[in-house]
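Researcher: Let's do a round of design. I'm pasting the structure tokens now; please hold your answer until I've finished.
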């Protein structure tokens, strides 16, 4: 990748990785049904991390509940507080598989009302997708254009401003690249395709 900045201008230079959006699902299960519930969730696509499947984390604890008169409890008695040994089962999945995994979990879970939680989180891709430069001082975008000596092609519009955190990449501009840049507080993306540069202000 072509060098754009001199060593004296750079505060830090790091590899840049695109982010991957993931979902984490936590569900509270009695020990007697733990493996059945997790098996069905795994078949639906939960617990896959790279080259590994059936990945989970489990924590023992105590759940409390009081069934109402209309309830049909798996355990405990109506109108009485119950203390049950349960396991918090955590696993991750792709957002695309989430609905099917929840349906599989609910079918296998013995409780009338299943307690579960869904969390959004991100992971970094394993492939390097560019270089992230943090400069010692902000540089005006107009000055960078002169340095690159290229005609400007902008997806979002360039304004008269200065930037300090800059991504240089060969990747095409898309939603994943934009969201990844925003996640790392990048101010400017410089896309290099052959000898043509494209600048995108974030």
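Researcher: That's everything. Go ahead.
Model: Designed sequence:
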């Amino acid at each position: 990748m072509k060098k754009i900045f001199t060593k004296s201008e750079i505060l830090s230079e790091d590899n840049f990785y695109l982010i991957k959006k993931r979902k984490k699902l936590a569900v509270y299960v009695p020990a007697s049904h733990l493996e059945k519930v997790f098996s069905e969730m795994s078949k639906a696509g939960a617990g896959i991390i790279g080259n590994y499947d059936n990945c989970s984390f489990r924590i023992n604890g105590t759940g409390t509940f009081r069934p109402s008169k209309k309830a049909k409890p798996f355990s405990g008695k109506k109108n009485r507080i119950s203390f049950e040994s349960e396991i918090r089962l955590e696993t991750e999945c792709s957002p695309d598989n989430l609905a099917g995994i929840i349906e599989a979990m609910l079918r296998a879970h013995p409780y009338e009302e299943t307690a579960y939680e869904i969390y959004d989180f991100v992971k970094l891709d394993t492939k390097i997708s560019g270089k992230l430069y943090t400069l010692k001082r902000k540089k005006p975008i107009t000055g960078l254009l002169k340095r690159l000596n290229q005609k400007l092609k902008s997806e979002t519009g360039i304004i008269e401003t200065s930037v300090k955190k800059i991504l240089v990449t060969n990747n095409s501009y898309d939603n994943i690249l934009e969201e990844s840049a925003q996640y790392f507080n990048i101010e400017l993306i410089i896309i290099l395709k052959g000898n043509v540069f494209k600048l995108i202000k974030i």
